[in-house]
Amino acid sequence: MSDPTTDNPFAVLTFLAAPAILTNASTLLALSTSNRLGKVSDRARAASAALLGGRKDDPHAGLHRQDFEFASTRATMLVEALRLLYLATGSFAAGTCVALIGAFAGYFGMGAVVLGAQVLTITLAVVGVAGLGLGSARLLAETRLALRVFAQLRAAMTEWDTAKGGAPPGAVM
Fold first, then answer.
1. 53-68: burial string, b at 16+ Cβ within 10 Å, e else
2. Quick one: pLDDT at residue 53?
């Protein structure tokens, strides 16, 4: 009977590299999502400051209100994505630790611990992949919303330009 760890030169590499790559992917997505959350929070603060500091008859109040609502929705979506990405990162890290425990248990001939470690490692890997996939899907939905908001702002600027008699000199449209 052949041993897959000695017959396949990629077995050890996969054991070490796959969790590291998935953990790295999750943490990088979480980092960029945190940056996006910071920018959206700044945008919500600016919109709320414009609303609270403006006059009741401000013609731009509707745009500020809409901007605040979109920023709030985007922030909620980003927090949901962050939770899923943190779940993925934690699952991959825990799965790696459990796999190492299983490897040591196998070396010392502790069959029951090895079996438990295998089941737990696979479960944690599935949870991690699901968290990574769902978090990415949530980020995609937030990006679509951001692009929709951008299109609406562009339309409002075009309408404003038309009402004012065109774009200012040197403006690129």
1. eeeeeeeeeebbeebb
2. 87
pLDDT digits (tens, 9 = 90+) for 69-114: 999 999 999 999 999 999 999 999 999 899 889 988 998 999 999 9
- Structural domain total, the chain: 1
Instruction: Tell me the pTM.
Output: 0.82
Domain that residue 141 falls in: 12-159
Of the pLDDT bands very low, low, confident and very high (cuts 50, 70, 90), residue 20 is: confident
Residue 127's Cβ-count burial label (10 Å; 0-12, 13-18, 19+) is: middle
8-state DSSP, 160? H
Both tokens of 43, joined, read 């945008």
- Residue 137 within a domain: yes
Q: What is the pLDDT of residues 135-144, one digit of tens each?
A: 999 999 999 9
Please report whether residue 107 resides in a domain. yes
Sequence-distant (6+) residues with CB within 8 A of 26 are 85, 88, 89, 92, 128, 131, 132, 135
